[in-house]
Amino acid sequence: MTDLITPITMPKFGLAMTEGKIASWNIPPGGHVDAGQEIADIETTKITNGYESPASGTLRRQIATEGETLPVGALLGVLAEPAVNDADIDVFIAKFQTDFSSDSAASTQADHAEPVLVSVGELTLRVQEAGQGSGTPLLFIHGFGGDLTNWMLNQNSLSTDRRTIAFDLPGHGGSSKIVGDGKPATFAATAAALLDKLDVTAVHVVGHSLGGAIALELAKAFPQKVASLSLIAPAGLGQGINMDFIEGFISADRRKTLEPVLNYLVHDKTLISRKMIEDIIRFKRLDGALQSLQTIAQACFPNGRQADDIRPALTAFSGPSQIIWGAEDEILSPADAKGLPDTITVTILPQAGHMPQLENAPAVNAAITQFVK
Hints:
The chain is α/β, with parallel strands linked by helices and 373 residues long.
């Protein structure tokens, strides 16, 4: 019966959040909860946020008390239907608490684990894997100027029952700076070759921004490899693009000029940390990095417009697909998701910008978890 029990855990509302306090419970024990309903108010050092329930059910237990401060991931409560008996819930809670305690050190180590370098043809790709299990693996594809750390609040959370794979695209992070023509289709071919190298036959693909366009090209060219598509603020569905971000990202060479460019990525500008800025500056100083970005920008965004219309690939994809977009995106417009078939789920997250997987990781992780199941 444990598969009918859903844990309510301390969410991570922002990049810097490590713990939160239960300001108040909005649902009493025994009360019914709908998915997305605010079940509690969580207080952090910055703000108090309503915590939306990841699933529907009955709030059978409140583990955390009002006023209690707990680390991210700690058990706050338990959802289950009335048919689940109390003994099963007791077993579930005891196991969760034991696993959370024993895995805390391992989780911290995983957060700082060094990725490995994988040779794929003439390329060397930086790859980070996490998780194991019988579920179809997840493949994360980041966007322009990003790297695998763009998934730092998502990969571990989504690897509880399946293998997950994040990697740096060519021209980015620790991967080779050879990008060919710089087009999404070329990167999709590289992603397919990486899956072959890792002996993975099919994956659920999560693609962000330009990574969304790459995911669509992967589904178009290698449909047998793609079990589903979760596209986060994807490129390829419209023509508009904030070229102040693209050009500024390429040209900015110090903190003073790069910080206002990175501010376009998020609704909450305080999330752009000094370390993030310094890491990007260091990356751009690597041999070939700047030229790679220029090649990609010229191929994908010529004359200030998106070059490729990949909307037909999305509508033609036979597997399940969903789109997640921040309502306050300043780089690509959420309006690009309009006019799609009703079979494609579109979720617009309020108070989130171009990177909702970082700004509202709990909502994004919950959407992907339910979707791939």
